[in-house]
Amino acid sequence: MGQESRDQRIRAAAFELLGQLTARYGETLPATQLRAGFAYEGHRVPLMGPQGIFKPALLELPLSITTVPVVAGKVRPYQDELGGDGFLQYKYRGVDANHRDNRGLREVMRCRLPLIYFHGVEPGQYLPVWPVFIVGDDPQGLTFTVEVDDPLASQVELAYQLPDVGRRAYVTRLARQRLHQVAFRHRVLRAYRESCAMCRLHHADLLDAAHILPDGHPAGEPITANGLALCKLHHAAFDRNIVGVRPDSVIEIRHDILDEIDGPMLRHGLQDLHGRRLMVVPRAEADRPKAEFLSERYHLFRAAS
């Protein structure tokens, strides 16, 4: 069989492995598993390498691209970003447009080959997105434009009946939202030591990263200072303005809820929080809720009260 056929089989095997790993570990995967990869005809094929643009030895062209996670106090070597159009702007390796890795991605684009994109959400943990395609090359800006496609596009009723271009734009927007949400959740839960800020519940499966100012707000960015780690109960109550947080981090419960008489869940879960300060806050000052964000959200809470 020719090289093209082997290339296709290796990429298909890599995608299949990702499906298995996400079923086992969830949507973020440990780097150790990604670097271990899989065996193909007696050779190891890692999914990820030490550099951002990665080509396993068995392939002629790159298999994956990686964005490293944001770490407080450290500058990322490449500032890959999700552009305003929703597409990923992926930086060249270095500043030489003819570096072999950059030439490799250019050839991947010419051949329309699928890649894997690994988005770092925290050290050692990556969210994989596949398949992705290089669809643009900007040598002056030293960036490639990346689109996401749906791995099930040929099986599901992507009977939105969108052509490839429309489908990829739609799927890329969804992937962009997912990357932001997952990365935001990881950063916020890590900053709050996987504990609810209001009640100290310490079970990650029961915790959410709540936005102080919502996604649609001009300042509603997915940054840690705009987040609170909250259990499912307190997240729902916060979103529905049953519970509010003053700029000085004191919790208030809506007056009509305070006046209700019900069982112990209402009393201990909500009413007893009234007048208390947040029980858990991030240790790093930069990660703590911004007073101006809390103030604006508190005004919304008061208006609802």
3D architecture notes:
The model is unreliable at 154-163 (pLDDT under 50). This protein folds into two domains: 3-188, no CATH class; 194-304, no CATH class. It is elongated, with a radius of gyration of 23 Å. The chain contains eight helices and 14 strands. The strands form four sheets. Strands 1, 4, 5, 6, 7, 8, 9 and 10 form an eight-stranded mixed beta sheet that branches. It has a two-stranded antiparallel sheet with strand order 2-3. The chain has helices at residues 3-25, 31-36, 100-111, 164-191, 232-239, 255-258, 264-269, 291-304; strands spanning 29-30, 38-40, 43-45, 53-54, 64-67, 81-82, 88-91, 115-122, 125-138, 143-148, 207-211, 227-231, 243-245, 251-253.
Short précis:
This protein has 305 residues and is of the alpha+beta class.
Main features:
single chain; 305 residues; alpha+beta; eight-stranded mixed sheet; two-stranded antiparallel sheet; 21% strand; elongated
SSE topology sketch:
Blueprint (H helix, E strand, L loop, with lengths): L2 H23 L3 E2 H6 L1 E3 L2 E3 L7 E2 L9 E4 L13 E2 L5 E4 L8 H12 L3 E8 L2 E14 L4 E6 L15 H28 L15 E5 L15 E5 H8 L3 E3 L5 E3 L1 H4 L5 H6 L21 H14 L1
- Mean pLDDT comes to 86
For the record, the count of structural domains works out to: 2
Residue share in helices? 25-40%
Major beta-sheet overview: 8 strands, mixed
- Measured by DSSP, the beta-strand proportion falls in 15-25%
